């Protein structure tokens, strides 16, 4: 009405009540970043809640508690609670312990305006007051619309089954529109003719739009904001791009991320880490996981991309491997080397932030953030992969299925520390099997596998990887940006590999120089499968067993192979489990025509990659006439309810046994006797 333009974004919302709350807040924060809205007055989140869900769903509390955190604040959200005084069939006395459904917001000392929804002008006044509060004090505010639900929970529901007295009153109660019309007529401010004219105008608009909707054919482009112009849908095939970086850029950013100001006094342990990193960059050898990750972030930032990493304890890293934010041991001053890569660098160009102790809320926030602009690498890291199931609704309803349901792409990266180190059933598994089970690729059909295109990955709902080298991790992160489509990336991140002496890469594996180790026929890029490192030729008829594995168990297998001087077993690492690398698997099957095929994993048989891999490996073998399902031998733990044993000695025995079994001279017993 004031002549100003307003842009409204409606975020797709599943029936899982309140799950969308942190997604909206994350997207709002991203809009503020991209529009340089530093005062947070030009972009605002509005959340519409139900009375039962506002009081009952824990994610409401998680979202409210993000509101004043430095890297999650949006300058206040307006919460509008449609308070029907009944939740489906549950009365308030059964649905909450507090007097008001909005009492959870008292934890923030947020103002809560309770208003009679039958008083239209009072509702307008309360909402204007809420908006002014938000713009003035930059904090959350709640409007509680005390109203009623005229009909049942849905079109065919009968509310009188459970609330007979309430609905007897409602049936005889005039609507809010009728009450307001009567009030205006009695005041003499409008006539019946004026009211009829307004009603006719509104009904006409609604009918015209309804008729137009019958001929509407949805297009994927309609759902993408202007930032996404030029990005491809699965029907528009995308070419693969290389992810290697010029050596001089690697050296320059490597120097920047391994130094700190002259008078800065870091902890001596952290100082030693940075000195080692500087030496790695100088020599070009022994680059570990933490430095490989930092190089990925740094090179993306200098290319002009926004990088955001958040989660519990991510600044230091749960396992003290990242140290992206340094703390002066005398003054407490903080310094982030990745904020000082280029002159006049935007302080938020690289953002790393410890989050509140929340999975559901924070993962939802980062998902919303990632949906705003494709030219950003947005990462959420779980403290341990085991804890990610606290955000299972986000994986099920948004991340795995969002593109299929709502045509919305996201390049969100999820890091889930995973691996069997003897830490027990709560600190061993990122539940790899769940992510693979939710993958939508057909296990019985080998897709088109053109080496220069990525039709397979575009048609899949997401990517699941279990990477074993710093260089490959570097490339899989950069691959998220260097392509013209977006897919979520689930990473089973390492724990003990962070400091494993063999889990290192040379700087030449990161660059784009032809002839260097990372450069293959197409260029330098992420390796979906890493072949055996014994220097085998294209045809090795003397190899009796091909062991396929994924993740850190490779290093234990390789160590045992060297120790036992086994020469007739090849070990290949499946770095990308989903979508399945049929072409590279078949290449290895052809290389070892006489080999027994083994899948080796640390996880129990009913977990890990086995169920997913076996079906697709069988399809690849059948196409080459190499046998059937029973020709795939399994080596790993037996089926189990718990992810891992709680006894360290038993863990060591199980791990030793499975590694030795994978390399034993005798044939391995088939899964099906």
UniProtKB/TrEMBL annotation:
<keyword id="KW-0560">Oxidoreductase</keyword>
<dbReference type="GO" id="GO:0030976">
    <property type="term" value="F:thiamine pyrophosphate binding"/>
</dbReference>
<dbReference type="InterPro" id="IPR001017">
    <property type="entry name" value="DH_E1"/>
</dbReference>
<comment type="similarity">
    <text>Belongs to the alpha-ketoglutarate dehydrogenase family.</text>
</comment>
<dbReference type="Pfam" id="PF00676">
    <property type="entry name" value="E1_dh"/>
</dbReference>
<dbReference type="GO" id="GO:0016624">
    <property type="term" value="F:oxidoreductase activity, acting on the aldehyde or oxo group of donors, disulfide as acceptor"/>
</dbReference>
<dbReference type="InterPro" id="IPR011603">
    <property type="entry name" value="2oxoglutarate_DH_E1"/>
</dbReference>
<keyword id="KW-0786">Thiamine pyrophosphate</keyword>
<feature type="domain" description="Transketolase-like pyrimidine-binding">
    <location>
        <begin position="287"/>
        <end position="500"/>
    </location>
</feature>
<dbReference type="InterPro" id="IPR042179">
    <property type="entry name" value="KGD_C_sf"/>
</dbReference>
<dbReference type="Pfam" id="PF02779">
    <property type="entry name" value="Transket_pyr"/>
</dbReference>
<dbReference type="Pfam" id="PF16870">
    <property type="entry name" value="OxoGdeHyase_C"/>
</dbReference>
<dbReference type="InterPro" id="IPR005475">
    <property type="entry name" value="Transketolase-like_Pyr-bd"/>
</dbReference>
<protein>
    <submittedName>
        <fullName>2-oxoglutarate dehydrogenase, E1 component</fullName>
    </submittedName>
</protein>
<dbReference type="InterPro" id="IPR029061">
    <property type="entry name" value="THDP-binding"/>
</dbReference>
<dbReference type="InterPro" id="IPR031717">
    <property type="entry name" value="ODO-1/KGD_C"/>
</dbReference>
